[in-house]
Amino acid sequence: MTPPQRRRREPDPEPFPQPPKEGEGKNPERLYIITGPDGERAPLDLVTLIVARAEPPSSATPEQSAVLRMCRAPLAVAEVSAYLSLPFSVVTVLLTEMLAAELVHARAPIVRQHLPDRSLLEAVMNGLQRL
């Protein structure tokens, strides 16, 4: 014989609404309108720096105008993507069009040369002289 099931006096509280998962709730048609048909893309990676060459022309889309305003100083493609709240793939298509129109310039990030510490070099030199 099984024991009787207990029932709660109050109904179960409704579960909290779950935040939408990535990709849900966004309008994919809007992304297609921004990028147009998918063509060739410029070889851009996340750390490529984008610099505006000109002021936004009157024919520029809102996204292009935003990129040109943001990129007056060098800005990485990943940062542009984050600030516009657009996927990286959409931003690369947008930037490819802007590169073709010569509105922006893309360049590799500047890497500072790492010079070895002078005291380390002297210690190595002293050690070698003792041998």
Describe the structure in your own words:
It is a single chain. The chain is built from 5 helices and 3 strands. By secondary structure, the protein is mainly alpha-helical. The mean pLDDT is 76.
- The number of distinct β-strands equals 3
Sheet of most strands: 3 strands, antiparallel
Provide the residue-averaged pLDDT: 76
Low-pLDDT residue spans: none
Whole-number radius of gyration?
27 Å
Shape: flat
Q: What level of helicity do the residues show?
A: 25-40%
Structural class: mainly alpha
In short:
With 131 residues, the chain is mainly alpha-helical.
How are the secondary structure elements laid out?
Layout: H1 28-35, E1 49-52, H2 62-70, E2 75-76, H3 77-84, H4 88-100, E3 104-107, H5 118-130
Antiparallel strand pairs: 1-2, 1-3
Helix pairs in contact: 1-4, 3-4
What descriptive keywords fit this protein?
about 130 residues, mainly alpha, three-stranded antiparallel beta sheet, 3 strands, about 10% strand, flat
